Design the sequence.
């Protein structure tokens, strides 16, 4: 199947916003993918050395993810066997951010794992664009807790939050899904959260911020609002690539960013655009809003079918006037398309 890929070397790179310790220093991840007949060579030599913060990824995991992407882009429906990996050659210098060695810290390796997958697809989109979806949202998760028994019953609620999937070369991306590396891990149902913890969910909806526009749009992220029902509650978040956004392909828009907002819409509103740990205390009545990013778009927005635009307007994902502005379409044409829905 690799013989169907044009021979050549294809490059992609991006950055983590920071490693969690040196907050003003982005971390580069770079890959060159070389197709030589039936061999796929993946080289990470341009990536930064292992970081001080715990975002490094060990080489064994990098090789596994390279195999995952190769399988997805070549024979995704075949039962996996050893032969699928024989054409794959993966190399990297010792002790980089994608080939970390002891004692480099790797606790929060997930951010890099996501980027390994998306970078490989971005590189190979130059060779086989019809097989390559745009990037999905970067992983986002939260922990809400009270660990000191002096302030009440202790609890610890933790979960990944759904987001938008990248658009495909033939269709819109999926909405409200888990990030690529997280398998089928589901969100925690509202009823479970409210029955076990001093939290109330006041909103759970799609995040129609209209990032990821294109011929095919990225899937929508979600908005999840929590109200604190007791005092002295603390927050921890996992988020990345809010400065160096994930991308669309073939002219599609980027995936946008994820936001964590304390007391949204009030004079006490605070927007947290990076990871936080032990943030608080949050007191009874205060609110926490989590907005996850969309997926990236695929193709130029000028090529989007007007019936797809009309469907998003009719379903309240897209404002009528905003649709006209974004897609530069005639008002009467959009009205007619909506009437046909």
Sequence:
């Amino acid at each position: 199947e690799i013989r169907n890929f044009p021979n050549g070397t294809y490059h992609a790179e991006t950055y983590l916003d920071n490693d969690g310790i040196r907050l003003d220093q982005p971390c580069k991840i770079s890959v060159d993918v070389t197709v030589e007949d039936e061999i796929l060579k993946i080289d990470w030599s341009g990536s930064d050395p292992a970081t001080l913060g715990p975002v490094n990824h060990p080489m064994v995991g990098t090789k596994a993810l390279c195999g995952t992407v190769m399988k997805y882009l070549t024979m995704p429906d075949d039962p996996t066997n050893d032969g699928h990996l024989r054409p794959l050659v993966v190399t990297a210098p010792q002790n980089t951010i994608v080939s970390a060695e002891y004692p480099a810290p790797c606790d929060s390796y997930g951010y890099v794992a996501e980027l390994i997958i998306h970078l490989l697809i971005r590189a190979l989109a130059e060779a086989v664009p019809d097989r390559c979806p745009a990037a999905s949202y970067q992983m986002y998760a939260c922990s809400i807790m009270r660990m000191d028994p002096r302030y009440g019953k202790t609890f610890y609620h933790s979960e990944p939050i759904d987001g938008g999937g990248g658009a495909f070369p033939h269709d819109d991306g999926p909405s409200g899904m888990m990030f690529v590396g997280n398998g089928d891990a589901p969100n925690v149902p509202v009823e479970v959260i409210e029955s076990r913890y001093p939290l109330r969910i006041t909103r759970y909806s799609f995040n129609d911020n209209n990032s990821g526009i294109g011929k095919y749009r990225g899937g929508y992220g979600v908005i999840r609002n929590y109200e604190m029902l007791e005092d002295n509650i603390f927050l921890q978040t996992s988020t990345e690539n809010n400065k160096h956004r994930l991308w669309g392909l073939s002219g599609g828009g980027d995936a946008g960013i994820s936001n964590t907002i304390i007391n949204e819409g009030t004079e006490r509103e605070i927007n947290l655009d990076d990871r936080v740990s032990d943030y608080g205390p949050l007191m009874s009545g205060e609110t926490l809003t989590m907005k996850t990013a969309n997926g990236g778009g695929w193709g130029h927005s000028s090529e989007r079918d007007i019936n797809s635009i009309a469907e998003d307007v009719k379903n309240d994902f897209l404002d009528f006037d905003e649709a006209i502005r974004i897609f530069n379409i005639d008002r009467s044409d959009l009205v007619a398309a909506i009437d046909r829905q």
Remarks:
- The longest helix spans residues 59-74.
